[in-house]
Design brief:
This protein is α/β, with parallel strands linked by helices. It is built from 15 helices and 18 strands. The longest helix has 25 residues.
């Protein structure tokens, strides 16, 4: 492998070894759950080389065998969904019913690629002057997956399943506050019968990820996270000429037009805002409403948001759990208070509860305008920002007045009108008409501008980390 690895080329002296232990806190109580030792340099290099060795065999397995393993994986996830969901809830506060749904969605992804992956990776004949010519999809090698805490199972599976189906190996650098989830996923791959080292977790902090990016065995990096994190990883990968797929932040606009069904719009907007306590890149964040229906829409939004009461995330009746960390909660509150100081009005919530844990209530701001944090920044939590516009044209302009471009939605009873706006006007990777946005294994997922580039899921996602090879035979 890399017995004489060039540590100087990685500028190891600039990395932050020796390590601090990784620790996981229960965000609902602030209780320390467990500490995990961070890997030493030699251990990180050893893990990468072991994945490289197993990938050399994995890439030559028939794709139908890979598919069979993912079918078994889907069964395992469904049979034990509650057990794995509890790990999610313990570490990042997601309500248990949402956590169970997340695990089952991972099973959906496994089943989707087990069924469709072989056809997606089949050689594609192309007629030319040669006697035979075709496109073949060959694995790149090792893919480093840098994943976030907000969907600690789903984000990993939607990146890893297509990459592994394509014959790659995966090295996971998960968020530092969800190590139990990371190690559980690794153990599940081994339990199902995948090669022992085809999917491995690096227990390192974010500041020590550069070494894995620079390792010559790593041929691609997929990251889901903030725009700042994406820029740093892209810059590091760029110096090594390595392929990246980046799914980054979002400030998704939901445009409510004057002819919208306001009951449907309010329910969809709030659902899209409050999934995972609003901690989602693709959550509905800016409710842009034509002023002629603003008052009625506000009332309906407040009613819908008020139903999300804070509660024990392990209780199946709970709709709003704790946020993942107190620093995330505190940053969100600063955005709320900053917007109020700049002239926004508070219709609901907006106060930090006086109890341990990273709690924040369902909050509604209105009269949000340019220059306010709730207008210009990504708000990662249960805060709805209502922005008034005079008509469709201004609404579209406001929707696009953002550095992000991940998702968005349009609400109108004129479906043709909504589809035109969705297809031609909103500058986002996914736009829904009369519904909220969510990822689906059947559809490509990703963004534009500061929301990143590349696509996950569907046939686009499985080919992102392949060598799209042209073969010509005379």
């Amino acid at each position: 492998m890399y017995k004489h690895y060039d540590f100087e080329s990685l500028q190891i002296n600039r990395l932050h070894f020796p390590h601090m232990p990784l620790q996981t806190l229960n965000p609902a109580t602030g209780e320390l759950l467990r500490q995990y030792p961070e890997m030493e340099i030699a251990e990180v290099l050893s893990v990468i080389e072991k994945v490289q060795a197993d990938q050399a065999e994995w890439r030559n397995r028939p794709v139908t065998e890979r598919a069979a393993l993912f079918r078994e994986f889907a069964k395992l996830l469904r049979e034990n969904a509650r057990q794995y969901a509890e790990a999610i809830t313990r570490e990042m506060g997601k309500p248990i019913t949402e956590a169970v749904s997340e695990v089952n969605k991972c099973a959906d992804c496994c089943e989707y690629y087990a069924e469709h992956g072989p056809a997606m990776l089949a050689d594609r004949p192309i007629a030319t002057e040669a006697s035979k010519s075709y496109v073949s999809y060959q694995p790149l090698g090792l893919v480093l997956a840098v994943m976030p805490w907000n969907f600690p199972f789903w984000q990993v599976f939607r990146a890893a399943v297509p990459a592994l189906m394509a014959g790659n190996g995966i090295v996971l650098k998960h968020a530092s506050n969800v190590p139990e989830c990371a190690l559980t996923i690794e153990a599940l791959f081994q339990r199902v019968g995948f090669p022992m080292n085809i999917f491995r977790t690096l227990m390192v902090s974010s500041k020590n990820t550069a070494m894995a990016i620079a390792h010559p065995a790593v041929q691609g990096i997929t990251l889901t996270g903030s725009s700042d994190a994406g820029m740093k990883v892209a810059a590091q990968a760029g110096t090594q000429l390595k392929k990246t797929v980046l799914e980054l932040g979002g400030s998704d606009p939901y445009l409510v037009l004057d002819d919208a069904d306001l009951d449907l719009a309010a329910k969809a907007c709030v659902t899209g805002r409050m999934i995972n306590a609003g901690q989602s890149c693709i959550a509905a964040k800016r409710f842009i409403v034509v002023e002629s229906v603003k008052a009625a829409f506000e009332q309906k939004v407040v009613t819908e948001m008020r139903a999300y009461e804070m509660g024990d995330p392990m209780c199946e009746a709970t709709k709003l759990g704790a946020l993942a960390r107190e620093d995330i909660r505190d940053e969100l509150h600063e955005q709320v208070t900053g917007s109020l100081a700049a002239g926004a009005k508070l219709l609901l919530g907006g106060e930090i509860p006086d109890k341990p844990g990273a709690w924040y209530p369902a909050t509604v701001l209105t009269d949000v305008r340019p220059g306010m944090p709730a207008y210009a920044e990504e708000t990662f939590g249960p805060v709805a920002a209502i922005i008034s516009v005079k008509d469709e044209a201004e609404g579209i302009a406001v929707a696009n007045d953002s550095r992000y471009g991940l998702g968005g939605a349009v609400f109108t009873q004129d479906v043709a009108r909504g589809e035109r706006i969705a297809r031609e006007e909103i500058l986002s990777g996914t736009v829904a008409v009369n519904d909220f946005v969510r990822s689906d294994p059947h559809l490509p997922f990703g963004g534009t501008r500061h929301s990143g580039y590349g696509r996950e899921l569907a046939d686009y996602g499985i080919r992102e980390f392949t060598n799209i090879k042209t073969v010509v035979v005379q």
